[in-house]
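pipeline/complex-builder :: batch 7 item 3
reading input block
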Amino acid sequence: MYDKKVIRRRRAALAVLLGLSLILLTAYFGESPSGVLHGVQRGAQQVLAPVESGASKAFKPFSDLFNWVGDAFGAKGQNKKLKKELAATRAQLAAAQSALRENQQLRAMVGLPRRPGFPQGTNPVAARVIARSPTDWYSTISIDKGSSDGIHPDQPVVTGDGLVGKIESATHGTAQVTLITDASSAVSAQIMPDGSSGILRPAVGDPSDLQLDFIQKGRQIKKGQAVVTAGFQSSGLQPLFPRGIPIGRVRTANPSEIQTYQRVHVQAYADFGRFDYVQVLTARPPGVQAASVGVGP
Amino acid sequence: MIVTGGSIFRTGLLVLLGVVIQISGLSQFHVLGASPDLTPLIVAAVALWAGSVPGAVTGFFVGLLLDLALGQNLGSSSLVLSAVGYGVGRYGELRDPAHGLIAIPVGAAATAGYLTAFAAVSFMLETAPSISALVLRDTLVTTILNAIVAVPIFGLVRRVIRPVLLAQPAGRRRRAHTRETGPIGLRGLEV
């Protein structure tokens, strides 16, 4: 055991050190920045500065290496986090782009009936495309509206760009649409403002190429002229579409292809692979309307 | 510890190098946002091997040097490190720990005590104090880092101050030479 003298000396040493620290603290706080203790502190910093600088330089390569390793581990975690954020942002972007596209399509569809020349009083019913045929040979789509919404076979189907097909069949809540690019499709069409009319069919093996046949050879057809529905029935080929629904524009005209008639190649306004919404014209326009120019997107 | 010119020189050199290495070298190493802190380890090591009074004195001067070099409130580190040195020294005197890994809990406790007490002193001295979760996190990380490096630091300090210690640390005490005995344990019956 320690004797009392040792204990007293030990405690006294501690008391002196703590007291000295408190005196230093009090004096340091009490004096102005130009005081003695502040001056001593500045002097000590000046003296230690070269040593600190040398030590800092000596340790720098090691600390850089060490921190590089640490940063690499940190970067791994950060990379993971950023990947998650990127995935979330991509999902948001995809949703926003999808919404934008839907918005554009719906705006175009709303605007189509207001265009000059478009048949009035057709009572369009908007529908969403819920299925699409994967082949070029059977160009059909399914929509989410059916007979309960007034949709019946042979009614024309349009997008914001123009005619895309007709109702093939309808159930209570859905309907099948045959596109005008389907091999079985044929639409009576008219070239504006010339007024030449013929039968529009998809080219065999290339549904994206619509061919307007039976145009009289003497007619001067120019590239870019609008093609619209003619509004009359050609015996047994196609039910009547209202007159004036835009279909596309003339791409080329080739008088030499057929002897008596000339064949006109038409580029459809609608992009058949990209639309998500359509409108079904559920009512026939009253009376016969004159088709006019000014169609097209 | 024998107070001689040599012991003062050795301890002073240890303190100076420790503080310089800490503020210029180790403060550049960052692990989870914190750095290891040599100063409480050096004070604790000196206190453990040399006793409470040398520990408190070492703590005072380490703190003073820190405050001078870093421009901190003069006396704040001294106050805390003196108490840490005294506390660790008293633990060593009362328990005489001999385990080889004693440096880990002692180093961790000294570091945690130093950082907590220093935070408390700084909190009291500041005019608009605020303690964030960052302080708690840094305290925890630094304590863990110091526990990891405690064994080599304590070993190094012991090597430096061993020549001036009054007695060898318990773990290194050499046993007195004992006479060899005979096969049945009785002296003088060697075969």
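note: The two ends of chain A are 105 Å apart (CA to CA).
queue -> next item
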